Amino acid sequence: GFLPASRISSIGVSEILKIGARASAMKREGKPVIILGAGEPDFDTPDHVKRSAWEAIQRGETKYTALDGTPELKMAIREKFQRENGLIYETDEITVATGAKQILFNAMMATINPGDEVIIPTPYWTSYSDIVQICAGKPVLIACDAAAGFRLSAAQLEAAITPKTRWLLLNSPSNPSGAAYSAADYRPLLDVLLKHPHVWLLVDDMYEHIVYDDFRFVTPAALEPRLKERTLTVNGVSKAYAMTGWRIGYAGGPRELIKAMAVVQSQATSCPASVSQAASVAALTGPQDFLKERTASFRRRRDLVVSRLNAIDGLDCRVPEGAFYTFSGCAGLLGKVTPSGRKIETDTDFCTYLLEDAHVAVVPGSAFGLSPFFRISYATSEAELQEALARIAAACARLS
Ligand code: PLP
């Protein structure tokens, strides 16, 4: 029979995919399922970006490119880092891959020896721990509860660092919690890192442009130049420019790390897609004003979802600073019984109930390493959100 390699034997298909498959199957059966699980903006890729891709095809830019990014795209990324983050990266300190996910994979594959530890605050984007495990590393998960704003504290970080620690992974704004680190939130963590020169920092800034109210986005390598030589600043076009299917992510970091990551990439994908790279140049160098409008639209939806959730007895939703997710506590509903007599013991039970009874698909906190919570992605129309929240409220009211 088939036996998987040990590096993947402990990794299951993610809860997100399982719920998604169930929801899609129910939809095919004709049930009116609303899926609030998608990790992508509901906007379209901007027209000028699409046009630039077509032009690249007509110019014949349909062949292999330079291994880790065309010179044009690296220049555009260099300018982006300087303009938006106050960070100077030379083009040989920049790498481009097939999505930020491959950036993370390249980085872990290039640096982790068996048993090396990677500190990951929870709730986390599921891929972090799975990628670390595929690379034979050991994820060190640290629970960061709602009361702490889903943020890691300096004391927690200090206590988690061992001689085997290779990386700290931070994601701000976060998928799934929407929580973000301000300069003041980052400072104590960066001070801890300064004391431990063997620990490297990977920051995932994918949701940088989706922040609300007066929140000021900052990135650690700009905040603390002394850490820049061991920080990998990860970003991409997927979320900011509604380009998830184009598969382009990038990072800035120390030259030696960037070179090692290119070695991994050279034997995995050879290079990112040529047409997508041309489109990403247009995204990064073209007009940026639509980002504000899109964020304003997300903000209205965030406010709607948060207020409707908090009006439901037993649910508790912290107001997220960014991204397009809410991560609500459902502790107040555990122990209750559904109309069909099933007891809700976990967040997974609760999400199963919502799917089956209210036909709303959301993802349990267990999928992100922190329970009892559930994630809603509000990157869908206001009408659909209104309907989904009404159904969730009614389903919660039916519990006894
Ligand atoms: N980082 C975070 C926190 C994400 O939520 C995602 C996508 O869901 C990614 C990275 C990956 O983005 P991509 O591979 O599309 O660039």
UniProtKB/TrEMBL annotation:
Pfam families: Aminotran_1_2. Residues 32-392 form the Aminotransferase class I/classII large domain. Its EC number is 2.6.1.-. PROSITE patterns: AA_TRANSFER_CLASS_1. The keyword RNA-binding does not apply. Gene3D superfamilies: Aspartate Aminotransferase, domain 1, Type I PLP-dependent aspartate aminotransferase-like (Major domain). It catalyses: L-aspartate + 2-oxoglutarate = oxaloacetate + L-glutamate. Its cofactor is pyridoxal 5'-phosphate. Keywords: Aminotransferase, Pyridoxal phosphate, Transferase. InterPro entries: Aminotransferase_I/II_large, AspAT/PAT-like, NHTrfase_class1_PyrdxlP-BS, PyrdxlP-dep_Trfase, PyrdxlP-dep_Trfase_major, PyrdxlP-dep_Trfase_small. CDD domains: AAT_like. It comes from the Bacteria. It is an enzyme of class 2 (transferase). GO terms for molecular function: transaminase activity. Belongs to the class-I pyridoxal-phosphate-dependent aminotransferase family. This is Aminotransferase.
